From TrEMBL:
GO terms for biological process: thiamine biosynthetic process; thiamine diphosphate biosynthetic process. ATP binds at R115, T160. It comes from Oceanobacillus indicireducens. Pathway: Cofactor biosynthesis; thiamine diphosphate biosynthesis; 4-methyl-5-(2-phosphoethyl)-thiazole from 5-(2-hydroxyethyl)-4-methylthiazole: step 1/1. Substrate binds at M39, A187. Belongs to the Thz kinase family. This is Hydroxyethylthiazole kinase. Its cofactor is Mg(2+). InterPro entries: Hyethyz_kinase (IPR000417), Ribokinase-like (IPR029056). Keywords: ATP-binding, Kinase, Magnesium, Metal-binding, Nucleotide-binding, Thiamine biosynthesis, Transferase. Catalyzes the phosphorylation of the hydroxyl group of 4-methyl-5-beta-hydroxyethylthiazole (THZ). It catalyses: 5-(2-hydroxyethyl)-4-methylthiazole + ATP = 4-methyl-5-(2-phosphooxyethyl)-thiazole + ADP + H(+). One of its GO terms (molecular function) is magnesium ion binding.
Length: 259
């Protein structure tokens, strides 16, 4: 399936309730891949935005009570309309408030995918007690933990790390695309979470689309680093590569292993 062509043909409306750090970067990344983003955080328009969206992305980075309320409203409305919802549970377990919000969302909202780093997925899977920082020190995850989380919440898990793990609880793939420079810029994971939105919005198979977007993002990072000298030049180069990316390039360079 040519995901990139489908996204650019459809220009899906992706409603993001995201954090202050990631907003501009995620919006530009979505535009670069061919999507149409909205980045509103107010509860007063959450249901309306969600009802018109092709996918909804909930990112808990700079969490507030208003954003938590907006996320729940948007998630429930999207579920009602059959619109895929993506969760990025940044710093899961880091504070009591954050833990409460994440638990409530997981209890009440059906997520099409959860995209998080290895440490955050480990917290959701009960293998780690707390995440003190969204910049995980856990380099990789036991694939069985990701599989457990996917089964528990009936979702696709994208656990990013040195090797990315993607699983729907039954099928599982490892992705070895990407570049270490992603660790040297803020909101790189947040951008991937947002990009999951347009991929799922055109997907026939949520798991396959999740594998595809993970590889595509990693490939864009690899190509960007060929043009960049450091984090300052990497960010615009990454946006350029998302804009220039095509399915043939993804098919040529993706490094996937089914297990």
């Amino acid at each position: 399936m040519n995901y990139i062509a489908k996204i650019r043909e459809k220009s899906p409306f992706i409603y993001n309730i995201t954090n202050e750090v990631a907003t501009n970067f995620a919006a530009n990344g979505l535009i670069a891949i061919g999507a149409s983003p909205a980045m509103s955080n107010t509860p007063k328009e959450a249901e309306e935005n969600a009802s018109h969206a092709d996918a909804v992305v909930l990112n808990l980075g700079t969490l507030t009570e208003d954003r938590a309320e907006a996320m729940l409203l948007a998630g429930l409305k999207a579920n009602e309309k059959g619109i895929p919802v993506i969760l990025d549970p940044i710093a899961a377990g880091g504070t009591k408030f954050r833990t409460k919000v994440i638990n409530e969302l997981l209890e009440k909202v059906k997520f099409a995918a959860i995209r998080a780093n290895a440490g955050e997925i480990s917290v959701l899977g009960g293998a780690l007690d707390i995440m003190k920082s969204p910049d995980s020190t856990v380099e990789s995850i036991d694939p069985k933990i990701a599989q457990t989380v996917a089964k528990e919440y009936d979702t696709v898990v994208i656990a990013t790390g040195k090797t990315d793990v993607i699983t729907d609880g039954t099928r599982m793939s490892l992705c070895n695309n990407g570049h270490t420079m992603l660790q040297n810029i803020t909101a790189s994971g947040c951008l991937l979470s947002s990009l999951v939105g347009p991929y799922l919005s055109v997907a026939e198979d949520l798991y396959e689309a999740s594998v595809e977007v993970t590889a595509a993002y990693g490939i864009a990072a690899e190509l960007a680093m060929k043009k960049a000298e450091g984090p300052g030049t990497f960010i615009p180069a990454l946006l350029d590569q998302l804009y220039l990316l095509d399915q043939e390039t993804v098919n040529t360079y993706k490094k996937l292993q089914e297990i």
